[in-house]
Amino acid sequence: MQHFISVKDAADINKLISRAIDCKQLPAAHRTLGAGKRIGMLFLNPSLRTRLSTQVAASNLGLETIVFNVDKEGWAMEFEEGAIMSGTTVEHVKDAAPILGNYFDILCIRAFPSLKNREDDYSEEVINSFIRYAGVPIVSLESATLHPLQSLTDLVTIREHWGLQQNRKPKVVLTWAPHIRALPQCVPNSFAQWINAWGETDFVITHPADYELDEQFTKGATITHDQQAALEGADFIYVKNWSTYRDYGRIYSNDPSWMLTPEKLKAAPGAKIMHCLPVRRNVELSDEVLDSPMSIVTQQASNRVWAAQAVLTEILSNG
Ligand code: CP
């Protein structure tokens, strides 16, 4: 593995899942793999899980980690080729990235979309600029359109619950949920991309009209606006809000009726409830559901360490 930006960087998804589960069972098995090496973690946006789980994973591999909150402490960075930098940006990525590539053996970047211009966001200018100019492996800690470490974690968590020996595929439902703010499409895009590439589930996406995601990620899934029908017999229900893709970055419906409730879950009594967190309680998901035995969100978030450790192990094993 050279970089970790999307599912395309996972040569064998099941092997990567197994590696993550191995890391969970024996966290210190490769304690010296990263000895003498250093990862830089650049945050252009806030984080709790991604930041700390990746630091723990790096520590388990003997890596030194340096975190830099670029958004709060760094120079405002310019990404546009040929930009006349007479505005607010101070340093071009083509100047900063090669320096960071000399400081670090692996560079991890978190950069959310602007949600203002779809073409700009979907060109993945930030993460691609670091790939172009840094000269070291780049790991996405969530980019403008994808969140691959989250998605690998999600598959690990499904595998832990479902196992390998069942005689049918699990039904996995990704359901839109209400939110008060316009959120990126990264998590649902990425989840759909990984689940489709994995091919080991019956995958259904349900959302209100006008909340269609980009087909490049959802192609292969069953898509319906009927949430209750979608939930019927589900084994895993992944709850997530996202803003509109076509009329980019808007909230049309903040319809509370899309919030998952115990009443709706009568259609899927054996379902496990997933969410990437952070979650707005009693907006996206009710307390009753989140605090019930059906919720596996804590296990899911805890598995972030093992997904990150599996990916860093793969990259370190390359060179
Ligand atoms: N799920 C996730 O990425 O959490 P953080 O935003 O806290 O990193």
Give a short overview.
The chain is α/β, with parallel strands linked by helices and 319 residues long.
Structure description:
- This protein has helices at 13-25, 49-60, 70-73, 93-103, 118-122, 125-134, 148-162, 186-198, 215-218, 227-231, 287-290, 297-302, 304-318; strands spanning 38-43, 64-68, 77-78, 91-92, 106-110, 138-140, 171-176, 202-206, 222-224, 236-240, 272-274.
- It has 319 residues and is α/β, with parallel strands linked by helices.
- The protein has a 5-stranded parallel β-sheet. The protein has a 4-stranded parallel β-sheet with strand order 2-1-5-6, sandwiched between helices.
- α8 (186-198) links the parallel β7 and β8 (202-206).
- α1 (13-25) crosses α13 (304-318), α2 (49-60) crosses α13 and α4 (93-103) crosses α6.
- The site of phosphoric acid mono(formamide)ester has 9 residues, from α2.
Weakly predicted, low-confidence segments:
none
| Element pattern in H and E | HEHEHEEHEHHEHEHEHEHEEHHH
- What would the average pLDDT be, to the nearest integer? 96
Counting DSSP H or I runs of 4 or more residues, the number of helices is 13
What is the rounded distance between the termini? Answer: 10 Å
